[in-house]
Amino acid sequence: MIEVKHISKSFADKQILFDVNYLFEKGKTNLIIGASGTGKTVLLKAIVGLVKPDEGQVLYDGRDFTSADSDLKTDIRREMGMLFQNSALFDSKNVEENVMFPLELLSKMEKPEMLDRANVCLARVGLEGSNKKMPSELSGGMKKRVGIARAIVLNPQYLFFDEPNSGLDPQTSVKIDALIQEITHEYGTTSVVVTHDMNSVMDIGERIIFMYKGKKLWEGSNKEIVNTEVKELQDFIFANHLLRHMQK
């Protein structure tokens, strides 16, 4: 599990996060939702160490990541996997090389063992036989799958997904959501998903935190969200429903 305690963050004279507290549970899909500019991506960056909070702590199974020395931070980072919004594949590397990259960087495996592990992960995301394809040959959905394979190649304890359905059609988005939830349950990871997609919320939102103007305004599950009485959350849900209707 990952616990954030009293996290606040400002850039220059603008405060982005205000005293955020939350517990991201192990073995569940934990979603951070909210409109653009509400602080959800900054919160994710604070959790993974891409930005340093001004105040507060991030605890990985009780280990304080914010004040950890370099050795402990390296150990915790080895337990992380992340899918970036644009998949962040290396254009000059083929699928196999992209998936093996974290192993080359952080493991002591020999090349044959790395290749075996990459093949296991590619099979898990339904991309057997795609090893030698270049990113330019892949569809958007396939790129996301390669990104997920790379994210799980080190057998992470913690998985992070930044807008995993960005740029995907609805049918592919459903498949990516299902894959994220399956892997979360199968590996028993603590998975954190940043999204503004209400389809994802309703399909895989086992634990949800709603961010509004840098504050945690609501928390609950996808079963509870439909009955919320929080006006700002109701407005967010309605806006997403209206946008989907207009896109049809």
Structure write-up:
This protein is of the alpha/beta class and about 250 residues long. It has 2 domains: about 1-80 and about 160-245, Rossmann fold; about 90-155, no CATH class. About 40% of the residues lie in helices and about 25% in strands. The chain is built from 9 helices and 10 strands. It has helices at about 40-50, 70-80, 95-105, 110-125, 140-150, 170-185, 200-205, 220-225, 230-245; strands spanning about 1-10, 15-25, 30-35, 55-60, 65, 80-85, 160, 190-195, 205-210, 215-220. The strands form 2 sheets. A 6-stranded mixed β-sheet has the order 6-7-8-3-9-10, sandwiched between helices. A 4-stranded antiparallel β-sheet has the order 2-1-4-5, covered by helices on one side. Helix 3 (about 95-105) runs parallel beside helix 5 (about 140-150). The relative contact order is 0.17.
